[in-house]
Structure formats: C-alpha cells, structure tokens
Amino acid sequence: MSKWLGIVGFTLLTSLMPSVASAQAVGGYAAGCQFDAQALPENGAGFHVIRASRARFYGQPTLINYLQSLGNKLEHAQLPPMLVADIAMERGGPFAYGHRSHQTGLDADIWLRTPPKQTSPRQLEKVPAVDMVDHSLYILTPQFKDQQRQLIALAAQDPRVSRIFVHPLIKQAMCTTYGDAAWLNRLRPWFGHSSHFHVRLHCPPGDTHCEPQAQAAPGTGCGSELASWINDKSGTLSGGASKPYRPTLPQQCQRWVKQ
C-alpha cells in the first residue's frame, strides 16, 4: 500500500512540473523560477560561499560553471578568493526578503571585500560587507584597490555575461583604468551596488522558456550615460518595500515555488 502511495505521490509531483528534459530557467529575472538547479559548493578554487544557511546558493549549470571558472581565473592570477553571496533558491522564485531579481538561477552577487582571515562556515555567516564608496564625499574609499578592479574585469570578460551592476563611481573607475575595452559595456551603473557587484548571465542557448533582458545600448557606456549617473549624487535605493515582492509568475512556476 505504501509503495502504491509513493508512486501516486511521485506522479502528482511530476504532473505539477513543466515537461523539461534538462535544467531550465523559466520566465524573467524578476518573475520566474528554475528547474534542475545545481548547488555551488561552499568552497572551491578561488571562492567561498557566504551566508550558506540562507540556502540561496542554487543556480543554473551555466552560472555554477561561470562562478567556478571565475574562481579558477582568480587563483591563476594570484588574486584573493571571491565571496559569493545570493544566487537563487533551489526552485527559484521570489525571496521572502531582499532582491526582486535572482529568480531564475542566472544572477549572482559577488562581494568586493576580500575574505576574512578565518573562513570557517561560522565566520562566513557573520562576515560584514565593506562599502567601497564614501557616500558623504561621493568618492571611492581606499578599500577599492587594483584587486577589486581585476576581479570585476575578469568577471565581465566572459561572453556569457549580459550585465554586471556596479555603483556609478565603480563604473567610472573601471572606465578610467580600462579605456575603451569592449566588455565595459556589460558594466551597468546602478545604485546600491557599492559593496558588491551583481552578475547577470544571458539566457542559455536553446532555453526557450527563459525571458532575456533587452540588449544594452552600444558602446562602452563611459560617456554621457555614465555622466548622468555620476551627476545624480542623491540617487540611492530604498530599504525595500514593506511587503515581500510577489510578481505574477509564469504558469510553469506557479505550483513549483512557494509565494
């Protein structure tokens, strides 16, 4: 009897899932979910996962590969390991608090500070962020050094990257250092990204349920577009809505994730 109930339960569960044969990102970055996600290991060559107790370290295989590849590049360049923060929940969908995006397993936050001396799981649960911008003077702090520039540059050069959101002053610093490098176009100024940067990958090839973001304007973005952000010194992100963000999800996601 219990075996029969188990078969019925499995059949019911699979009936609630879209008919996918492999990992998929479904919907948009801020209204979607993911199937067959992979977990980023807590530690690896060139990276550590922080706040692992939140279980926000799941992503599509292409993103997990991207992060591990970036970690290897950092190690090869003899740069400090990166701290990987929120990616997505195992099934994706909106978080109970925090981001509006990070729903399809194609977004990841990477902190700009270097790891603490002790990288035990307990220490990595409590490690504080380091703001790289003095917001009162509107300048970068001395903590933003060449190793932060190299980390962002290595992250941006992968062709799988659609966008990397950084504070306008950080974008300005990258433009000053790297001139007319084509990948500067992928660095998009956005307030609220002064202690970390947010990597967003393109929809994987053949992933027909994934909704891509519009292409960024051509050019490096280091001219008038950036100037408008730099001049808007008052621009900030609020502390977030008082209620959790609950978008209308694609049909494939509605019974798959909890809202």
What is the gist of this entry?
This protein has helices at 2-15, 61-76, 121-126, 146-156, 168-178, 224-231, 251-254, and strands at residues 24-28, 31-35, 38-39, 43-44, 47-49, 58-59, 82-84, 107-111, 133-134, 139-140, 161-166, 187-189, 196-201. It is α+β, with helices and mostly antiparallel strands. The strands form four sheets. Strands 4-5-7-8-13-11-12 form a seven-stranded mixed β-sheet. It has a two-stranded antiparallel ribbon with strand order 1-2. A two-stranded antiparallel sheet has the order 3-6.
Highlighted features:
alpha+beta; two-stranded antiparallel ribbon; disordered N terminus; 7-stranded mixed sheet; 7 helices; 18% strand; single chain; 259 residues
Mean pLDDT metric: 89
What's the alpha carbon Rg, rounded to whole Å? 19 Å
Number of helices: 7
Shape label: globular
Q: In order across it, which strands form the biggest sheet?
A: 4-5-7-8-13-11-12
| Parts with pLDDT < 50 across at least 5 consecutive residues | 1-21
Q: Please tally the β strands and state the result.
A: 13
Report the span from N to C terminus: 33 Å
